[in-house]
Amino acid sequence: MLMTTLILGLVLGGTYALLALGLTLQYGIARIMNLAYGELTLAAAFLVVAFFQGAGLSPLLSLPAIALAGYGAGWLLYQVMMRPLVARSGGSGRLEVDSILATFGLLFLIQGVLLVSFGADFTSISYLDRGVSVFGVSVALNRLIAFGICILAGTALVTALRTTSWGLRMRAVALTPGSAPLVGIDVNRVARQGFALGSALAAIGGASVSMYQTFSATDGVVFTMKALVIVIMGGVGNVPGALAAGFALGLLETFVATAIDPGLTLAATFAIFLAVLLWRPQGLFGARS
């Protein structure tokens, strides 16, 4: 029982961590709270399903194209929609409020397009859903693949942020956006890259979700809220914290579902979220100010 909960919780947490990475980048670097994040995730998931059902293209084979499309969509959204908000804010805290309002409207726009394009019915595909034994626990192969994608994406992102000049620029803008231009960093360019990369991670998360979950065009808000909970738990802008918090949330939900009641998983998630906001607002893995 304990091993089953541990394995399934880590696999679920891997998906949550991957979903939260993009939102962490978008807010931590671009200072934009994207409430339409879940809709971008769903759009990618629906595209994977369309490619799979219409052309017989494996989700793994379509993943690179989906990631590039997500990056392009994020870049375009920043240029057309977010950059005017950044310019208008003048470096003040107004950007956070304006971005919440703007992406709240974008949420319903994307959701409407998804409803018209794919309908309101639940969607799923059968892809590598055979069981694989992991330490005596049977886990669907598609879930293990999604877990592997999370590990690869998370490890690559953390390594790039810590060891490359690109990562140094990203961290400089995240920590001190006002001082970054003094050392020749183009803050707007870095913020655009961070927002676009966050959208690419949302797309990769959507592709992973499509492999084993049933979803509908109105489920985006659930993905956004789960990602937001993880970002707050891990510490805003803290990529390793988001990874750790994602795995922790997966373990928590799996324990509640198996040991107490599956109907209480969402309540447990938001109970932890409220507790963190009240008693440790910098996040479980964030540094005390």
- Strand arrangement across the biggest beta sheet: 1-2
Helix/strand/pairing category = mainly alpha
Q: What's the pLDDT, averaged over the residues?
A: 88
Number of discrete helical segments: 10
Q: Provide the succession of SSEs.
A: HHHHEEHHHHHH
The portion of residues forming beta strands comes to under 5%
- In angstroms, what is the radius of gyration? 19 Å
State the shape. Answer: globular
Q: What is the makeup of the main sheet?
A: 2 strands, antiparallel
Stretches where pLDDT falls below 50 for ≥5 residues?
none
Terminal residue distance: 40 Å
Number of strands: 2
State the helical fraction.
over 70%
Give an overview in words:
The chain is mainly α and 289 residues long. 74% of the residues lie in helices and 3% in strands. It is built from 10 helices and 2 strands. A two-stranded antiparallel ribbon has the order 1-2. A hairpin with a 2-residue loop joins strand 1 and strand 2. The longest helix has 31 residues. It is globular and about 55 Å long.
